[in-house]
């Protein structure tokens, strides 16, 4: 087996798959899938969904303290992280749900930043699941993820960054999450770049540098990439960390753009105020399944339009960054406000085996309501089920093809070539009707209620709805699907972790009464 590993590593490093003999490649793929099979059933709690609209705190959610009084409230509109008042902070994390990092993570949620005058923003963060009780990072512009240092005159402002931190995604209305700060009351590294409405990625905590201000939790968390969502035809709208040297390369913003904050909370995609974030982490895997970091993409939906703000940024497991908010003499423990020289550091960002997810938001001298809802956490290349619609008349059955707009994947989980998507990759035997609480129905292929009977046929791959006698109205039922695992080239898609999010089959049952005209009188034909 070790010989196979060495051979596969060598072949992968050549990156000339066209010159690899079929037998050798097949052997590598077999080894990969054997490893994947051993990892099945160890992906954690995928898929996960939480609407945050019940008005009560979900049992798996914790509301930590550590950055001030937690302003979180659970409302029927969503999870409100802060009110529109100055100097507030709110945070939650999903306490007893963890997600394997092996094959990546996909996160989506709706959000709103509105009702105030513009600050600060929301962070979504991933941290090492081995940390069972994380201490949230600094409030204000740090959005509960980054650290804040200060001199002795403002010692109360000192706050370490998030414990166990791996990745912080700032949806930053005001813009301070990305910026370097060096003042008496707040000091942290970042980019010298002005501008509001930015999406910013910050990395993991750094090494201990000294015991005079830059200890555990007070270094690292560097900005890897930041990008404005606003139209910035001139000047700098973005910055990306160079692969070497610890500096940044600046870029312009988009020619047309949108604001992360809104004037209200958009309820549907028809509303200009609607906002939704899509954050995808696709592993930088080699043929042996070793995770060498993630390619990260962030998309924001504004109204009915989805814009890619950050596209396949490679978050490496080790890289150079710059501590550029150093104090003179390498100490914060005085009342001076003199800056010191920048220092380059190596950040070790080893991917934790399992990750957990949290959210934070803050206000400062300006404010907004910060709210999230409809969170989903899935695996990249999990099966995808879409809603279906049918129609029939009273007492007449109708057949619906649920797979017409559904897909599952096949192939190795690599950035290139990507796994292939097709309805033909769906495992017909793994169709599941669901109860209203999301659990599998007692009979996953047949459910009867006061609307009628939904029946799935695994041979035809179709669903038949037979209305209850006399029923008129709208009938619906939820279902889910998953893919198949084909030996050698299939990947792990048959694992329950790759099951789709729920989709809905809706059937409209009408009266459909036929009215015929009476025969016309003779002579009027």
Lay out the secondary structure.
Blueprint: H1 2-14, H2 22-39, E1 48-50, E2 61-62, E3 73-75, E4 78-82, E5 89-94, E6 99-100, E7 105-114, E8 121-128, E9 165-172, E10 181-182, E11 187-188, E12 198-202, E13 223-228, E14 238-241, E15 248-251, E16 275-285, E17 291-302, E18 305-315, E19 318-323, E20 343-348, E21 354-362, E22 369-378, E23 388-393, E24 398-400, E25 408-410, E26 420-422, E27 432-434, E28 446-449, E29 452-457, E30 462-467, E31 473-480, E32 503-510
Parallel strand pairs: 23-32
Antiparallel strand pairs: 1-22, 2-5, 3-4, 4-22, 5-21, 6-21, 7-16, 7-22, 8-9, 8-21, 9-12, 10-11, 12-13, 13-14, 14-15, 16-17, 17-18, 19-20, 24-30, 25-26, 27-31, 28-29, 29-30, 31-32
């Amino acid at each position: 087996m070790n010989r196979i590993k060495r051979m596969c590593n060598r072949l992968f490093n050549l990156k000339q798959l066209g010159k690899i003999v079929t037998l050798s490649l097949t052997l590598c793929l077999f080894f990969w899938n054997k490893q994947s099979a051993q990892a099945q059933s160890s992906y954690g709690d995928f898929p996960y969904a939480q609407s945050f609209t019940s008005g009560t705190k979900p049992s798996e959610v914790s509301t930590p303290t550590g950055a001030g009084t937690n302003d979180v409230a659970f409302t029927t509109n969503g999870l409100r992280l802060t009110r529109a008042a100055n100097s507030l902070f709110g945070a939650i994390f999903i306490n007893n749900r963890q997600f394997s990092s092996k094959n990546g993570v996909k996160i989506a949620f709706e959000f709103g930043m509105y009702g105030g005058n513009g600050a600060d923003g929301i962070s979504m963060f991933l941290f090492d699941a081995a940390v069972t009780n994380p201490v949230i990072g600094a409030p204000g512009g740090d959005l509960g993820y980054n650290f804040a240092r200060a001199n002795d005159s403002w010692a109360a402002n000192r706050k370490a960054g998030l414990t166990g931190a791996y990745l912080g995604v700032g949806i930053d209305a005001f813009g301070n999450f990305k910026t370097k700060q060096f003042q008496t009351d707040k000091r942290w590294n970042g980019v010298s770049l002005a501008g509001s409405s930015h999406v910013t990625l910050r990395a993991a905590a750094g090494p201990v540098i000294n015991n005079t201000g830059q200890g555990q939790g007070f270094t690292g968390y560097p900005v890897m990439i930041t990008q404005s969502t606003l139209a910035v035809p001139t000047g700098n709208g973005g910055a990306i960390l160079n692969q070497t040297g610890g500096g940044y390369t600046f870029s312009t913003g988009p020619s047309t753009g949108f604001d992360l904050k809104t004037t209200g909370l958009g309820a549907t995609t028809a509303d200009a105020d609607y906002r939704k974030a899509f954050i995808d982490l696709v592993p930088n895997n080699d043929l042996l399944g070793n995770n060498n970091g993630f390619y990260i993409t962030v998309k924001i939906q504004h109204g009915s339009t989805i814009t890619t703000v950050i596209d396949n940024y490679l978050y490496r497991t080790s890289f150079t960054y710059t501590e550029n908010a150093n104090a003179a003499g390498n100490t914060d423990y005085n009342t001076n406000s003199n800056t010191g020289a920048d220092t380059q550091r190596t950040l070790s960002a080893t991917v934790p085996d399992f990750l957990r997810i949290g959210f934070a938001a803050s206000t400062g001298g300006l404010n907004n309501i910060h709210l999230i809802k409809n969170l989903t956490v899935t695996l990249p290349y999990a099966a995808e089920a879409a809603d279906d619609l049918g129609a029939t008349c009273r007492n007449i059955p109708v057949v619906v093809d649920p797979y017409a707009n559904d897909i599952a994947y096949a192939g190795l989980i690599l950035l290139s070539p990507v796994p292939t998507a097709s309805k033909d990759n769906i495992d017909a035997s793994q169709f599941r009707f669901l109860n209203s609480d999301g659990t599998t129905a007692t009979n996953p292929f047949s459910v009867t209620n006061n609307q009628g009977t939904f029946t799935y046929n695994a041979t035809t791959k179709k669903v038949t709805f037979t209305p209850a006698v006399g029923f008129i109205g709208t009938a619906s039922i939820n279902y889910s699907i998953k893919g198949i695992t084909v030996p050698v080239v299939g990947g792990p898609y048959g694992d329950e972790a790759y099951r789709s999010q729920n989709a809905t089959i809706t059937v409209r049952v009408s009266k459909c009464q036929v009215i015929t005209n009476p025969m016309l009188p003779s002579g009027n034909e």
